[in-house]
Amino acid sequence: MPTDEYRLEQLPNGQRLITERLDRLRSVCLGFWIPAGSRDEAAPLIGASHFIEHLLFKGSAKYTAEEIAQVFDTLGGELNASTSREYVVVYGRFLDDQLPVAMDVMTDMLVAPTFADLDREREVVLEEIAMVDDSPQDLIHDVLAEVVLDGHPLAHPILGTRETISDVREEDIRTYHKERFQYSDMVVAAAGNVDHNELRTLLLERHNVADGMDPQRALVTPRVGPQRRFLTKETEQMHMCLGGVGMARSDDRRFQLSVLDSLFGGSLSSRLFQEIREKRGLVYSVYSFSGMYAETGLTGLYFGCRPERLGAVMDTVGHELVRLMTEPVEDEELRRAKEHLKGRMILGLESTSSRMTRLGKGVLTDTEILSLDELAARIDAVTSEQLMELAGNVYRPDALSVVGIGADEDQFARAVPEDCLAGLM
Fold it and tell me: Span 228-424: which CATH code?
């Protein structure tokens, strides 16, 4: 098993570089973490971070889009990116002796994109938005964020909207890129057979002056208040989310929340899966989830069922919510949830991509990077009493919002009356 030793350094050019050397491997995973996400976008620019993520692959000062693809294909590696509410990450996996070539391509993409084919890529993003609109099991999470984090920048849809993507101008994209994608502000993370000093030299050769803007975010407390929302779409199922304001990632109770999520709806043996799917056969998909951000979070559960079964599923969910807050977790169930969580973490860190992500995200979000032993100890320390108290906080029925997507709003209204959750306690 790899060690948990890493090296973190602030470079003269302002970048933070973190590496974990695993010299038994022949590969490297390298990631550039940019402090720009959907929460940072002004209303006319919602979706700009994700749009730029696409455009980075369309060519740079030194490489065309085809050449970028060809270089990584020749390296036998992979190049990808993703956008979240708080950051963009561009990452590549390749053989260790190809680090200089991969670095040259990736840094040129990030620092000197040409924004070629902007209008053509605009159509690609609009197709992606349309795809989500046609996937209610995905769309409903954006709706829940909009409802629970009402008015908060974290409620911005990552992909943007048809209107913002259709209307955004190239000069606005260039300005946003210049402000938020500064080389000096990026966190660089690497895991695998990588030499920290070599990577440091390559980064400084590209740019050795600290000229980043060190963008700061205004942290805003979301307005708390349960709401209901229904979107009418021609679907066979009724898609449902129940959720509320969760916790910030700096909250000491985050390990309790991970254990709670595991036993409530995060595994095949979890309560929601067993009671709603396995014992009653009411759904195909049901799970709980949580997201933690700088100053707040979002916690909830999702299920999809045929409309005539909605009332039965809601009754079962209500019963499980009450049980979660009022009955101590039995020792065996608690042990199983902890072991599931620890196993998932350890298995996830078997790959260089996961280890790079752990390092880069930890530095960018200013979250402590714990060893596997420390993680296990934090999980093992969680008690049944703590879980009951926490459940009463994040799953308090009268504070949960309810959103639904389906063909029949009347059926939603009958199965989920205004006071259906508040009346549970």
Answer: 3.30.830.10
